[in-house]
Write a structure and sequence with these properties.
The complex is a heterodimer of chains A (about 120) and B (about 100).
Chain A: E1 3-7, E2 11-12, E3 18-25, E4 33-39, E5 46-51, E6 57-59, E7 67-72, E8 77-82, E9 91-99, E10 103-107, E11 111-115
Parallel strand pairs in A: 2-11
Antiparallel strand pairs in A: 1-3, 3-8, 4-5, 4-9, 5-6, 7-8, 9-10, 9-11
Chain B: E1 4-5, E2 9-12, E3 18-24, E4 32-37, E5 44-48, E6 52-53, E7 61-66, E8 69-74, E9 83-89, E10 95-96, E11 100-104
Parallel strand pairs in B: 2-11
Antiparallel strand pairs in B: 1-3, 3-8, 4-5, 4-9, 5-6, 7-8, 9-10, 9-11
Classes of the chains: A mainly beta (about 120), B mainly beta (about 100).
C-alpha cells in the first residue's frame, strides 16, 4: 500500500538549515510527484513545493530563495532543505503524493519542527 | 498568488446538511480540491477537481462549483465529521484556504 513517512530533527536553531527526508513505499518516484506542505501550530496549510516525476522542482515564491527539494529514486526518498530558519518556520511538515500536479491523495503523518535557541 | 477564502467556523446538528464555501481571488476553472483534517492527523483527500469523490470517501460528501466559487456539501452530517475542512487550488501553483472548522451541536 502507499505510504509516506517524514523524518528529521525536531529542533533547529535560528539561522540554521533544516533537512527533512520523506521515505515512500508502494509507488515509484519516477511515476508520481511528491510535495511538501507545512502547518504552523493551530494554523492552516501552506504548500512549500514539490518535485515532479520527471525531476523538475517547483517552489512557492515566498520561500523559493531558501528552498531545495531533491530525491534519490533508488532509495525512494525525497529531501527538503530550507536555509536561514526563523521562529516563524516552526510547523508540522508533511510530505504528500501529488496527482497530475493537482491534488494530494496520500499524506505522511508529518514531522514537527521547532525553531528555537 | 491565488488567495482562497473560507468561513472560519460552522456549527450544525447531526443529520443536517451543511455547505462549506471556498472563494478564489481569481478563476481556477475546476482545479479545486477539498481535504478533511482531524486534530493530530494529516489531511485526507475528500474531493478532487471540484466534484470528483476520492476513493473510499462516503457519498455523503459532494463538491460543486467552477471558476471562483466552490462548495463542499455534507449530507447528512455525522458526529465523526467534526474536523477542519480545507480547499486547495492547483490552477496557479498551489494554495490552500484558511480552513473551516466544523463543529456539531
Amino acid at each position: 500500500q502507499v505510504q509516506l513517512k517524514e523524518s528529521g530533527p525536531g529542533l533547529v536553531q535560528p539561522s540554521q538549515t533544516l533537512s527533512l527526508t520523506c521515505t515512500v513505499s508502494g509507488f515509484s518516484l519516477t511515476n508520481y510527484d511528491v510535495g511538501w506542505v507545512r502547518q504552523p501550530p493551530g494554523k492552516g496549510l501552506e504548500w512549500i513545493g514539490e518535485i515532479w516525476s520527471g525531476g523538475n522542482t517547483h517552489y512557492t515564491p515566498p520561500l523559493k530563495s531558501r528552498l531545495s527539494i531533491s530525491r534519490d529514486t533508488s532509495k525512494s526518498q525525497i529531501f527538503l532543505k530550507m536555509d536561514s530558519l526563523q521562529t516563524e518556520d516552526t510547523a508540522m511538515y508533511f510530505c504528500a503524493r501529488s496527482r497530475y500536479h493537482d491534488y494530494f491523495d496520500y499524506w505522511g503523518q508529518g514531522v514537527m519542527v521547532t525553531v528555537s535557541s | 498568488d491565488t488567495v482562497l477564502t473560507q468561513s472560519p467556523a460552522l456549527a450544525v446538528s447531526p443529520g443536517e446538511r451543511v455547505s462549506i464555501s471556498c472563494r478564489a481571488s481569481e478563476g481556477v476553472d475546476s482545479y479545486m480540491h477539498w481535504y478533511q483534517q482531524k486534530p493530530g492527523q494529516q489531511p485526507k483527500l475528500l474531493i478532487y477537481k471540484a466534484s470528483k469523490l476520492a476513493f473510499g470517501v462516503p457519498a455523503r460528501f459532494s463538491g460543486s462549483g467552477s471558476g471562483t466559487d466552490f462548495t463542499l456539501t455534507i449530507d447528512p452530517v455525522e458526529a465523526d465529521d467534526t474536523a477542519t475542512y480545507f480547499c486547495q487550488q492547483s490552477w496557479n501553483d498551489r494554495t490552500f484556504g484558511g480552513g473551516t472548522k466544523l463543529e456539531l451541536k
